[in-house]
Specification:
Elements lengths: L1 E7 L4 H4 L13 H13 L7 E4 L3 H13 L8 E6 L19 E6 L16 H8 L1 H9 L11 H21 L4 E5 L1 H11 L4 H4 L9 E6 L5 E6 L3
Parallel strand pairs: 1-5, 2-4, 2-5, 3-4
Antiparallel strand pairs: 1-6, 6-7
Helix pairs in contact: 2-3, 4-5, 6-7
The structure holds 2-phosphoglyceric acid (2PG).
């Protein structure tokens, strides 16, 4: 049995400004950093041995705050960023003869990035709802297969995220490693759709709070045995 912790990043400066963000690399707000610190406290009784985060700074900041504000979760190891090690362009600059047992790897991957929001990126959500109607905007934001103009649908996001999740992340989980994943509303929705066996109709209602950890216990066959949302 292993623990898989999923967490959406803390509030970003564009979440606070109600702007569509997608792949725009916006950092956490002050509140977002505080939310990540609270998440860290909630996770103090868990120990992880490998972490994954998207390439976007809001997810990376959230991971680092969780691991360093309450370092029990690292089990005495030092967290080290491992940037795109799978990438053919990775040039190995962070290679050194260290002590891997004393380190907690944090793998970054663009497969975990937020849904690409296309032409909506940077636009204010309320202004777009005024222009196109609240119903249309809700469909762009939450439907499974309808993509926002020029962007990715949740279905497209799922096609991008799931192969990485099953090949890289679940491999650790089924071997018994406790894993922390920090990502985004829509990339995590895709993962949770798979873990919770949600239909396209059911996933429409799934909303994730900023920096709220979701803790799964998963057996060696990859079957979910329990799920707990560590909300306030
Ligand atoms: O703007 C975004 O990238 C996302 C997450 O903040 O928004 P939404 O909730 O509309 O998917």
């Amino acid at each position: 049995m292993a623990t898989l912790i999923l967490t959406r990043h803390g509030q970003s400066l564009w979440n606070a400004a109600n702007r569509f963000t997608g792949w725009v690399d916006v950092p956490l707000s002050e509140r977002g950093r505080a939310e990540a610190t609270i998440a860290s406290t909630k996770l103090r009784d868990y120990q992880v041995s490998v972490c994954f985060t998207s390439m976007l700074i809001r997810a990376i900041e959230t991971t680092v705050i969780i691991l360093t504000e309450c370092d029990e979760i690292c089990g005495g190891r030092i967290p080290i960023m491992k940037h795109q090690e799978d990438d053919k362009d990775w040039h190995g600059w962070d290679k050194y003869d260290g002590n891997p047992d004393g380190e907690l790897p944090i793998y970054t991957s663009s497969f975990l990035d937020e849904r690409y929001y296309g032409d909506l990126q940077g636009k204010n959500k309320a202004e777009i709802a005024e222009k196109y109607g609240a119903e249309q905007v809700q469909i762009w934001r939450r439907s499974y297969s309808e993509a926002p103009p020029g962007g990715e649908s949740l279905e497209n996001t799922r096609e991008r995220v799931l192969p990485f999740f099953t090949s890289r992340i679940m491999t650790h989980v089924t071997q018994g490693d406790n894993v922390l994943v920090s990502a985004h509303g829509n990339s995590l929705r895709a993962i949770m759709m798979h873990l919770d066996q949600l239909s396209p109709e059911e996933v429409v209602k799934l909303e994730l709070g900023t920096a709220v950890p979701i803790v799964y216990e998963i057996d060696g066959q990859g079957i979910v045995q329990s799920k707990e949302v560590l909300s306030a």
